[in-house]
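# step 3/5: fold
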Amino acid sequence: MESPRSHPRSAAPAPSELRPDDPTQVGRYRIEARIGEGGMGAVYLGRDPGGQVVAVKVVRPDLAGNRMFLARFHDEAAHAERVASFCTAQVLEHGEDLGLAYLVTEYIEGPSLLDHVTAIGPLSPGMLHGVAVGVAAALVAIHSAGLVHRDLKPSNVLLSISGPRVIDFGIARALDAASSHTRTGQVVGTPGWFAPEQITTQNITPAVDVFAWSCLVAFAATGRNPFGQGSFELMAARAVHAEPELGSLPEPLSRLVRSALLKDPEQRPGARDLLLGLVGGAGEADVSHTLGASWTTPPIPRPDVTSRDPGAAQAQPQARAQVPAPPPPRPQPQPQPQPQPHQRTAPANELPPPAPMPVAERHRQAPNQGTMPSHEIAPHPVTVPQQPPDRRRTALAAGAAVLVVAAIAAAGAYFLTRPDDNGGKADTGSTAKAATGFPTGPMLVRIDTEPGWPKECHADIGTYKPGDAAPATLVGGPACDTLPERSPDHKYIAFSRSVDGATSAQVVNADGSGRHKVADIAGGRVTWSPDGTRLAYMGGSGGTRQIYTVTLANGTVTRLTGDDSAKDDPMWSSTGRIVFWSRKDGAEQIYTLDPDHPAKPWVRVTRDGVRSVDPEWSPDGSKIAYTRGPSAASGIWVMNADGSGGHALTSGDAHDMDPGWSRDGRWICYVRGPVGTPEIHAVRADGTGDRVVTPPGKVLGHPSWS
């Protein structure tokens, strides 16, 4: 075939001028133009103070209040920072600017694979082999960091001068979390590129990316999707039941592509197997050698390239400048205090990234089949509600949104100590020096009105906003009120009340009004089901306590356990499982169970025999914070939901206990010190920025942020 430069290439719309409600400054980056818009928000062309061109990605406002989305994003961003930047894009920084969350990525110049094939046709043998190798190498890096792309497709592969670069991974999972309670049974992905198990709602594993890799390689070789074209339903049916049409592929590509398209995910090769089959080695040097020998410079790179669905109408070719000229300047906003970016440097003793985490019992979101730009941040375009312009033009809308992206930082990237950090030691000075991203909302707390806890309890339920002089009481009186927990919709609060030796689960409105008893319990905390219709609690008397649930609407009680082991601290996750500790196998260890199928065996998630109690799910249900170690010398630990990746957040030498996650999953509050006079602390989920948040002269306990 002829050299790509001898062919005209389709031209995509140039970066457009900013709209009235677009930002003109995000953090330290000047925003010059809008690159594109998709399902999660907008992508902008920006420049740093030194003039470097970057892509600035911002998420649409209506996701800002979704706890599942926020927590999933931050979790995925932490994993993405560990992805090697070889054959991927690099994340430069992320932060928040007066309510506007953003992420800045390296700007990759070059057309997408979709644009190139749509405009020019199938790749030459050398470029085809280079794409197969480069994308497989990117998947090795992505999977090694515990991520699954979930939406690998030609528009997410950019053909740069140095080789193919994979972008926009980690996004579908965040969007799936955002919609899991509102779009049950739907699919996140793009028709023609998703695997059969994404259609049939099986667990998502790295094998879905291997399937998509084979579809992508076949498309690059033939210009056609191996499952053809058609409606969502038709493409889904073909992916599950039909055999692909691959045409003539050279070896070893033909063999690898066919094995990667097997319907059973367990029979497909892994990404490393693909790479070994293509280059005879899985190292960066092997990949670099292959790309250097086979890669043909793609058409002159254009930063204004946008991706189109195959078959979409093509624009006429047009010339381009090396870097897009910005549109006419707009009035700049008044200078604002610059936010501290979320960057990181790894301490010398940092643990390796956790193993890939299984995703169980997940719901799907149906894809949308629209178009999106090469630097897009979402798999599907979604209509974004129009918002009136804000008084500050650097905000998308009032209360706007959290950032989500698919960019990545080089493996071994370092945590940068922020100005408010002090090496992980507690900041005992002032809470006014809040961290970038430090939660601004109030936490629920137990307010001790008289000394004596825990032998004597004189406690109210209230709220406390870190930095305030004192907490605010919501539920007061002579009773012992403890362990407050907000409902998922934040309209109600459940807590435990003890009066004259009898304990009950109580529920009040968020403002403290309307208190009523729900059930008699045996002490301990109560916890809400994900839909807010049930509470789980410890029940029973005179013998071993068991875990029960009660339906709030009709008072129906269901017993979930019946063994003779001591157990406590049930906590319901947003994904539907209940975590708790039990002495079933000796020392206190943490287990999970399915409350809708209580006869199923428990799953033990701690196995080292060290006392582990107080388990708390992260808002998205992907992690568990817990208290580990002997009571007098316990610390706060975090692990993945399956028990992998356990690591300490605190030193474990000062009786740390009772962890609780912030709503965005980025901070954990806990109590430290003597049981009768504890201090509430907060620490980032990466273990940095530990600080005291209890106001002087007050005794507060049982903090709950979420």
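# step 4/5: annotate
The two ends are 59 Å apart (CA to CA).
# step 5/5: archive (pending)
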